[in-house]
Design goal:
Blueprint: E1 4-5, E2 31-35, H1 37-49, E3 53-61, H2 69-72, E4 81-84, H3 86-93, E5 101-107, H4 113-118, E6 124-129, H5 135-147, E7 152-155, H6 165-170, E8 180-182, H7 186-195, E9 199-203, E10 209-210, E11 219-224, H8 233-236, E12 240-243, H9 255-269
Parallel strand pairs: 1-4, 3-4, 6-7, 6-11, 7-8, 9-11, 9-12, 10-12
Antiparallel strand pairs: 2-5, 3-5
Helix pairs in contact: 5-9
Length: 273
């Protein structure tokens, strides 16, 4: 579709993009805002695969269109592309949008943790996160999962939404490429993983095994708990625990940082890297 110019920030055709900082689309019928060239490219790939994510409309800074032609060609012809000047785009967004690239996407396919676990290969690496409330950490966990070849991310229902605009941006679009679910309780997820034969390891400063000494197995899960408190004692008592060696003076690492270090070690042990 040829780009359509928007001259009025109140044009109803781009209503979803209005004041996106204050009014994120997360939670509204599975819709979300994708921001930036890298995330747009990931959305285009997801859209092209015909999986759970599709693009609904795009809004671009007028001088970005030519440079994005390759990415735009990956979307189907029925996806409307709107363009605007810098001043109009900033008025629409509610702040200076220096990237000049926005899209509305939708997640159309939701699965339960049990369904996703059932679809995993015989040799699998899974990241599970419970109670993560920081969008930067959620985004970074997905980026780590993609970097180290994880097959899926399992989030319990108390985690914040990875399709929140900031989380999606921090993940550099990995939320759109790594299969994930965000539903169910911690107990339900752990039960499903146990029944599927996964070796379950939880991160804790007081873990029984140093992370580099965790033995490899064909099906492995790495669990990260809430920022600050970590995994609850009753959960730690049910699973194997690992720690990351660090210099004296601090009691723990940031949740996403710890996940990245541990994933690297486990991926190496499994021969993924």
């Amino acid at each position: 579709m040829a780009p359509v110019r928007i001259n009025d920030a109140d044009d109803p055709r781009i209503a979803e993009f209005r004041s996106i900082r204050e009014r994120d689309l997360t939670g509204r019928e599975g819709r979300f805002i994708a921001e930036g060239t890298v995330v747009l490219r990931m959305l285009a790939a997801a859209h092209r695969r015909g999986g759970g994510f599709v693009a609904e409309k795009l809004l671009l800074l007028e001088n970005r269109v030519a440079g994005l032609s390759e990415i735009l060609s990956e979307f189907s012809e029925d996806i409307p592309v709107y363009v605007a000047s810098s001043s109009v785009l900033d008025e629409i967004a509610g702040f200076h949008l220096h990237r000049g690239v926005l899209a509305v996407g939708q997640r159309r396919r939701e699965r339960t943790a049990v369904e996703l676990i059932a679809d995993l290969p015989l040799k699998a690496l899974v990241v599970a996160a419970f109670g993560i409330s920081n969008h930067d950490n959620i985004g970074s966990i997905f980026r780590n999962a993609a970097a180290f070849g994880a097959d899926a991310v399992l989030l319990d229902q108390s985690c914040c939404d990875p399709l929140y605009r900031k989380a999606l941006r921090v993940s550099v679009g990995s939320v759109l490429s790594v299969p994930y679910v965000r539903n169910g309780s911690t107990a339900e997820i752990l039960s499903g993983l146990t029944e599927a034969g996964f070796s379950i390891w939880g991160l804790s400063p007081a873990g029984a095994v140093e992370i580099r000494n965790v033995p490899a197995s064909d099906r492995m899960v790495l669990i990260t708990g809430t920022e600050g408190e970590g995994l609850p004692a009753d959960i730690l008592a049910r699973i194997q625990t690992a720690r990351i060696a660090q210099a004296p003076g601090l009691d723990s690492l940031n949740a996403a940082t710890a996940t990245g270090i541990a994933l690297y070690e486990i991926a190496m042990a499994q021969g993924r890297l």
